[in-house]
Write a structure and sequence with these properties.
- The protein is α/β, with parallel strands linked by helices and 442 residues long.
- It has 2 domains: 187 residues, Rossmann fold; 231 residues, P-loop containing nucleotide triphosphate hydrolases (Rossmann fold), CATH 3.40.50.300.
- 32% of the residues lie in helices and 17% in strands.
- It is built from 15 helices and 14 strands.
- It has a 5-stranded parallel β-sheet with strand order 11-12-13-8-14, with helices on both faces. A 4-stranded antiparallel β-sheet has the order 7-6-9-10, covered by helices on one side.
- A hairpin with a 2-residue loop joins strand 9 and strand 10.
- Helix 5 packs across helix 6.
- The longest helix is centred in the middle third of the chain and has 18 residues.
- The relative contact order is 0.13.
């Protein structure tokens, strides 16, 4: 099931599974042999937020980076067992995903890709007759995507599972036979997968409303008062015996554009948490930010005010009651709440960003009511709203359609003046902005 962001893919998938109320028409599941809510299993990105809602545990955004601060949070093993699966089924499901090493980790400590594997394992352990996966490859590295395709092909051919994938990839599993394409809430195409015309994404559209955004970035550009954005010297991070980063050395200078690559669990998000002042082990390491050694008197807010940031973990914890306007404005003060007052120039930039997003007519709509892709786009624009000297973007294009990704790549290339620095994480090479010329592989 394909279509651009906000056309209703996830809503239709929920209706198919019986988890979304329909106001007219009929739906039935004549082929199911078991009870519907057991026979149909749905995996969606938004489930990642629910992993943390435990009545017996207090949680907060930085908690996954605190080694001894997980009291009350279930391990992956406990989580799967608590959802009604026996241990053999749980282990088998994780084994299919090459993820049995996650069993005894607290689920709050998982990376976004590891979290996706847990949600998939939860669905697979229930032995569904129909499996619906919303954005199946979100947060998965190339090896994990290939393993997932092999697993899905096996489930369809050997277990008779009916499969619906929501959102498209350049490399779907071979078992996919049909395609349903939505446009503006209606069906634009349904039929054999091979009969669908190849999508074309305009590479250089000229009518994008980015002029005002670029102008603001140019007008607020300042020569940096430091000669190094980041310097890591033999940095190591470990949780007990588990080493996440080992003797890492890295130098980032002002104006450089980097991509950070690596498999799920390789430490990419941990690395960014050190830079963004969220990780307590920063004080046990030689980390220099903006020309100063961490722990020499600067507050975390001194660091955060110079950085525009977004990540899958931030998304999972974000307050769904905020409006689209409030989400973007919250980026001005590095908290989950917007400032009480803003300047006229900031107001103009806000409107320009909302026009770019295509959501300018929905500024009062709660964050939770947007599609996953629209939410991720709002959080990316939130990172831009203070026109920071450094952009720290952890998989910012997750859940975006191809057209929106291309527009966002062009926007990043346009706003990155020579004074500004980019550190970019993605599992997809096609997502990396054109200006990126340096790479750190973990």
């Amino acid at each position: 099931m394909t279509g651009n962001n906000g056309v209703g893919k996830s809503s239709l998938a929920e209706a198919v599974s019986g988890r979304h109320r329909v106001t007219s028409g009929q739906r039935s599941w004549p082929g199911l042999t078991g009870e519907r809510f057991q026979a149909i299993r749905t995996v969606s990105f938004t489930d990642s937020g629910r992993l943390f809602h435990n009545a017996n545990a207090v949680h907060y955004y930085q908690q996954r980076f605190n080694a001894f601060d997980a009291d009350g949070h279930l391990t992956v093993r406990d989580y799967l067992l608590a959802n009604g699966h026996d241990e053999a089924s749980a282990v088998a499901a994780l084994s299919h995903l090459n993820a049995t090493d996650l069993l005894d980790l607290e689920r709050i400590k998982l990376s976004s890709g590891q979290t996706r594997k847990l949600l998939l394992a939860k669905a697979l352990a229930g032995q569904p007759e129909i499996l619906i996966i919303d954005n199946p490859y979100l947060g998965l590295d190339a090896r994990s995507r290939s393993r997932l395709n092999t697993l899905l092909d096996d489930l369809v051919s050997n277990n008779g599972v009916s499969l619906i994938l929501v959102g498209m990839t350049d490399a779907p599993p071979t078992c996919i036979t049909h395609r349903l394409h939505l446009k503006e809430g209606t069906i634009a195409f349904q039929g054999n997968f091979s009969d669908y015309p190849i999508d074309t994404v305009p590479k250089r559209a000229t009518d994008e409303p980015i002029t005002d955004i670029v102008r603001y970035f140019q007008e607020t550009a300042k020569a940096p008062d430091y000669d190094q954005v980041l310097k890591l010297v033999n940095v190591s991070v470990a949780y007990g015996k588990k080493v996440v980063l080992d003797q890492l050395n890295w130098l980032v200078k002002p104006g450089e554009q980097w991509v950070v690559s690596g498999n799920n669990g390789s430490g990419k998000s941990t690395l960014l948490s050190l830079i963004y002042a969220d990780h307590p082990q920063a004080y046990a390491n030689r980390i220099h930010l903006f020309g100063r050694r961490r722990g020499r008197g600067e507050s975390i807010w001194d660091i955060k005010r110079r950085i525009g940031f977004t990540s899958p973990e931030l998304h999972a914890f974000f307050d769904g009651s905020l409006t689209a306007r409030e989400v973007l404005l919250s980026g001005l003060n590095d908290t989950f709440r917007p400032p009480k007052t803003i300047t006229s120039a900031q107001e103009d930039l806000l409107h320009a960003l909302l026009r770019f997003s295509g959501l300018a007519l929905h500024t009062s709509k709660p964050f939770r009511q947007f599609s996953t892709g629209e939410q991720r786009l709002l959080l990316l624009l939130r990172a831009l709203i203070k026109a920071p000297p450094v952009l720290l973007l952890d998989e910012p294009f997750q859940g975006l359609d191809a057209k929106t990704i291309e527009r966002c790549r062009r926007l990043l290339d346009a706003v990155l003046t020579p004074e500004r620095t980019l550190i970019f994480i993605s599992h997809f090479r096609a997502e990396v902005p054109e200006g990126v010329g340096l790479e750190l592989g973990l």
